[in-house]
Amino acid sequence: MPKENQLIKFTKRGIYCPQGKFYLDPWYPVEYAIISHGHADHARRGMKRYLCTDDSKPILKHRLGADIKIESIPYNKILNINGVNVSFHPAGHVIGSAQIKLEHKGYVVVFSGDYKTQPDFITTPFEPIKCHTFITESTFGLPIYHWKKEEELQSQLQSWVKANQSNGRTSVFLGYSLGKAQRLMSLLDSCDDIYVHRAIHNLNLAISESGLKLPQAKLWSADLNKKTLQNKIIIAPPALLGSRMLKRVPNSATAICSGWMQIRGNRRWQAVDAGFVVSDHADWNGLISAVKATEAEQVYVTHGSQAVFSKYLNEIGIKANELKTEYGDEALAKAEKEDVENKKIV
Amino acid sequence: MKQFSDLISAVELTNKTNAKIEALADYFRTAPDKDKLWLIALFTGKRPSRPVKTTLMKEWCMELTELPEWLFLESYSTVGDLGETLALLLPNPTHKLDLSLNEWMTELKVLKTKTDEEKKAFVLEAWSGLDQQERLIFNKLIGGSFRIGVSKKTLVNALAKLTGIDTNRLMHSITGHWDVDSISFEELINGTHINYDNSKPYPFCLAYALEKQLHELGEAEDWFVEQKWDGIRGQIVKRNNEIYIWSRGEELVTKQFPELVGAISNFQDDFVIDGEILAMKDNDVLLFNDLQKRLNRKNVTKKLLEEVPIGFYAYDLLELNGDDLRDYPFKERRKHLEQIFSSTALPEDVKLSFLVNFEEWEDLYAIRNNSRAINSEGLMLKQKKSPYHTGRKKGDWWKWKVDPLTIDAVMIYAQKGSGRRSSKYTDYTFAVKKDNALVTVAKAYSGLTDKEITEISQWVNKNAIEKFGPVRTVKPELVFEIAFEGIALSNRHKSGVALRFPRIARWRRDKPVDEIDTIETVKALILSC
């Protein structure tokens, strides 16, 4: 087993495996890209070949085009690429999301992509993988971030819907098309009819066609009778905040669903009626327990609170360094906004 | 506390004033009497003094969570509010405490006299028995301020909606002298403890910005012209030996300006005077920035009284010895006002606003341009025949402000705001060129849209040089046009100049950094105005 990790290199195009001759979630076009999940900051256009999980495949094809050259394998199955054993392991982030494990001559690197350690009702739960080098995200890498249990969250969201209904109001939830939308559908499933924005609807269709079962949701189209929507639930991408389409819904209450809503300043910044703490990422304890569970001797910290989280890891005796990447919530929000504006929709 | 906590959640989330008023009115309809009184007390600054030091609360939280101090501080600078930071860091509650607002406040009053050990036991017990939102409120009850977007005015509007009582009267009632223990809610809002007949103000007469040429206003001789002093508009009410000062925001600010009360008590007549509250020293009007140091203070210290003395310029007379003069022509009202000021041994701090001497409209241009030198915002033009209108009315009064001065400067530091702005970098420091380096010229917080602030915040996140702490040094790259009302030489500032009321006029995305102003061109503005 090599003493030092020779398996990965950090390049301008992204994280590269020289032995395997492939990149992990590269941000510039390359020959061969292994993709952790379907979000726009991780799965980008222009790669000659893609490899992802079976569950991510319909999402990538939907987002990046049916003509992309793409292969997929199920979770936990090992594929040998130029002598490197590559496998995907559930990351609990969004449907199809995976940590990517590389193994070569006994040396193991795990790239987390984005992950969430707490189980929800819809994604395959996160599984910690032992490794020598762990590359972790740090979106919510501060001890102020603690998520509620899924059941608690569910009753919180559902009572908000009920309160709105008692005032004759339609409940509008804003969350990313991939991940947050399906998660909200699962949380609100038993509540009332759910209508989703076309971006979400099309993605749902793509996911369902590949055989995955999603909670029921109807298309929210502009020509729906206004009465139909009264007291119901609408789920839309955050890019729609302030849009004409949303303003046309009579008597509605709007909630933003995001981990950032943990902080009052963030809740108050947006002119909405409610902010719910619903995140696809690990909270502080989640990040720490995930890192510890890998037993990695070297940790690289990517997008989010890199500086804080890596400093803290070093203080508790885990060797960690910051790693600059092009991933992150802002890149994702920007991409989704452009998609919605161009009607090219996720 | 649940009820109070729900109220806070409801009012802090919405930015619709009506929704806030509705939530408050709902609380007043259903909460226990004492809780209602406490709510009013807390939102009008009648908070008991802090029983536990913040440093101790921080220490106990770090002990409980086993977090290093730097990480605590990093969390604090992300959240922007200490009470909230504590609430978010602490472990989940282990049990449920259910006390009313009044019970908590009563406990906190007693706590002040206890030892630190006893205080610690009490606070830790509370923390472990309250959920996140209740814990935040508990921390806020101990100290700090409730910045949740409920002004006294919103509170008063909610009470008015509930009771139908006149808002100014309610404002006087709740800001008057009262104490939770010795009054009932009914008594408070009915004002049994005040005499409203003595304090009742009039609605202010407001002017529009001049939108035509001067000669289109008619004959110059039909108009009075005054300086438009840059302070806060105020109404001084003196009736039956009682004195009240109302601000234009319909707040009673009497206690903030004790020197004005002292000066006014020298006058013989009863009256209601409209005028401008100003920071004034040795007959000179000071900067609005100076005046700000005196605003919204619970206690006015002796030091502050000396540093920033307050004066008043009287513009108009609305009532004299019980007679309402508002329908008199301004010329008449002015005559009576002059009489009041001539018949008294005049105190220094309260002055008659002087009329600008001019014959032709053209004379006013030079006078207006000189306004800046005496810390005035420009000129006010008032038709001599005009009554004292209610509210804003076009035609009789015009404000004619000087155009602001502007420079192009580059952002060099960014800092997060507070309250609603705590999640974004909203407070910036700007620099201009000096030789081959940069020198700070101004700090500015206002003038950008939320959208621009969001964009700049993201840029700061990416381009900051430091990684820790509340202030970020950024690459000098973003150029802004800074507008300000005046400029003076100053020894206190490294740049050698002080700008008056700087704010961001616009973001100059089109301008590269090497085209920003130099300190020489900035200084040249001093000579030109």
Automatic annotation (TrEMBL), chain A:
Gene3D superfamilies: Ribonuclease Z/Hydroxyacylglutathione hydrolase-like. It comes from the Bacteria. One of its GO terms (molecular function) is RNA endonuclease activity. Keywords: Ligase. Transmembrane segments: none annotated. InterPro entries: MBL, RibonucZ/Hydroxyglut_hydro, Xnuc_lig_assoc. This is DNA ligase-associated DEXH box helicase.
Automatic annotation (TrEMBL), chain B:
Its EC number is 6.5.1.1. It is an enzyme of class 6 (ligase). Pfam families: DNA_ligase_A_C, DNA_ligase_A_M, DNA_ligase_A_N. Residues 303-434 form the ATP-dependent DNA ligase family profile domain. Keywords: ATP-binding, Cell cycle, Cell division, DNA damage, DNA recombination, DNA repair, DNA replication, Ligase, Magnesium, Metal-binding, Nucleotide-binding. It catalyses: ATP + (deoxyribonucleotide)n-3'-hydroxyl + 5'-phospho-(deoxyribonucleotide)m = (deoxyribonucleotide)n+m + AMP + diphosphate. GO terms for biological process: cell division; DNA recombination; DNA repair; DNA replication. This is DNA ligase (ATP). The lineage of its organism: Bacteria, Pseudomonadati, Bacteroidota, Flavobacteriia, Flavobacteriales.
